Amino acid sequence: MWPTMTENEQSHDSPRTEPETAAVVALRTSELDVDEGRSEWRSTLGHLYAEMDVAWPESRSGLDAEWGGRPLGDLHISTIRCDAQTVVRSPEMIRSDASADYLVCLVTGGHVEVRQSGRTAQLERGSFALLDLGAPFVFHSRATFGQVVVRIPGSAMAARLPGAYSHLATGRSFGPATGASAIVGRLLTDLAATPVSAAAASSFSLSAIEMLSATIIDDAREDAEAESFHAQDLARIKRVIGENLHDAELTLSDVASMSGMSLRNVQKLVKTTGRTPSAWLYEARVERAKSLLLTTDLSVATISEQVGFRDVSHFGRVFRRLAGISPGRFRAPNHALPPAMPPRTAG
Q: Which segments constitute the HTH araC/xylS-type domain (predicted)?
């Protein structure tokens, strides 16, 4: 079982000070007692990356871990080996210690699981994941693992990776078998193991960012295209509903037919919004009713009919449930107020 800590849990760690990407790390916890070793491990995470919390299995009596890290141009690159652990960056930590940077976690031994952006990735040797330090995530390993971790400035990624791709890239696995991701994995492993001069480090780091960005774009292109088509299909469904809200007999089958889609496809698309098809239709009716209440003098009963309700009482109940207020009270503040009475003067 995983430790009970979650992405939403607030850490007891203190906020991190300004990151120093020039930091050189040489940490071996076997030379420390268990409490001191764990404290140093947490401190190094916070110092190099951002505020995070770490949990270890309760049965673990000590911590056997090593960390070596150094700057590489604009990057910071580390080689890590550690016992089983769970690392969490929660919304509370992001608020207290914001960061726009990214981490590339390349597994060199064992198995790791990461969760971010609603996705879960299983990483094996040679595969890597991109983690956004500006969004909550969970990093978990059930056993001893090894990895290369690269911190990349957010500005460097933003200049090379469109926003849609950066969102699609987090919380997923790249590699390890063949192709561009395998080349990037080998490059990062070699850079972590081979010190280079300061002059070469700048060029190498830029090349690594360029190669990583190209790999992410190439790998995520199909998902980006699918997401674009998904958005277009949802927009078409919304348009059909909007054009037929007056029809109290409108069904999802009608919407599917008029949208040129199968009923099953429409049901699946609507469910991706987190709402049921009937809820989606009711929300559209209420949104149209709000517009009519604010922009026309039509009666509530007439508006109820125009947005597809047979019964004004039913309309009122649905409106109140979704808007938190009755149709009449929703409209009232927007009516003209009576002229103010002149102030009284002393007689």
A: 235-333
For 260, residues 6+ apart whose C-beta sits below 8 A from its C-beta are: 236
258 CB-contact burial (10 Å; exposed 0-12 / middle 13-18 / buried 19+): middle
CA distance 249 to 247: 5
For residue 257, give every residue at least 6 positions away whose Cβ sits within 8 Å of its Cβ, in sequence order, or none: none
| C-beta separation of 111 from 117 below 8 A | no
Cα separation values, 331 from 169, 281, 313, 318, Å: 45, 22, 17, 16
| 113: number of Cβ within 10 Å | 17
Task: Name the pairing type of β-strands 25-28 and 66-72.
Answer: antiparallel
Q: Residue 212 is part of a domain; what is its CATH number?
A: 2.60.120.10
Which residues on adjacent β-strands are paired with residue 155?
none
Q: What is the 3-state secondary structure (H, E, C) of 228-270?
A: HHHHHHHHHHHHHHHHCCCCCCCCHHHHHHHHCCCHHHHHHHH
Model confidence pLDDT, tens digit, residues 15-51: 444 444 448 999 999 888 888 999 999 999 999 999 9
219 and 257 part of one domain: no
Tell me the percentage of the chain whose pLDDT exceeds 90. 46
DSSP state of 30: G
Residue 20 lies in a domain: no
Q: What is the pTM of this model?
A: 0.62
CA triple 133-126-55, angle to 5 deg: 45
Token readout for 219 is 């790998």
